[in-house]
Write a structure and sequence with these properties.
Shape: elongated
Order of helices and strands: HHEEEEEE
Strand content: 25-35%
Largest sheet: 4 strands, antiparallel
Low-confidence stretches: none
Number of helices: 2
């Protein structure tokens, strides 16, 4: 009869690196997803504030940053206008032939993302490679009534 006492230990040692890479990948994906959700919530809050006060750019950005609940977040906003026909125009002009001017605000939040992996790119022996994201960004565009 053959002696098989070390088989389980050997199989475990062979599969451990694969399991470790999968766990680290799931950890990074989870962290990224949570931060992306927070960034989207911040962008929405900034957009909702912009509906009330579209000319207060600094307050819109501060509201978006604070609503994320994260540190190191930057927020930007921009206001643009278009006629009902879809033609982009300056917000100080009027649309011709009875068209209504529509005003929009876009709020974008950005934060640096640091992966659990310290490598910039992970290669899989000629089968491909994976680079972790370096930033998390969320953007919301709302119409200003």
């Amino acid at each position: 009869m053959l002696d098989r006492r070390g088989n389980i230990l050997l199989e475990f040692a062979l599969i451990l690196p694969v399991v470790f890479i999968l766990l680290v990948g799931m950890l990074d994906l989870g962290r990224f997803g949570i931060q992306k959700s927070a960034m989207l919530q911040g962008a929405r809050a900034g957009g909702q504030y912009a509906i009330v006060a579209p000319d207060q750019s600094a307050s819109i950005n501060t509201t978006a940053q604070n609503a994320t609940g994260l540190t190191g977040v930057t927020a930007t906003n921009s206001v643009f206008c278009e006629c009902v026909s879809g033609t982009a125009v300056a917000c100080t002009t009027t649309c011709g032939s009875g068209e209504t001017l529509k005003t929009y605000v876009t709020v974008t939040t950005t934060k640096a993302f640091s992966s659990v992996l310290s490598v910039a790119t992970l290669s899989f022996a000629g089968m491909g490679s994976w680079s972790p994201p370096t930033s998390v960004t969320a953007s919301v565009t709302l119409i200003v009534p």
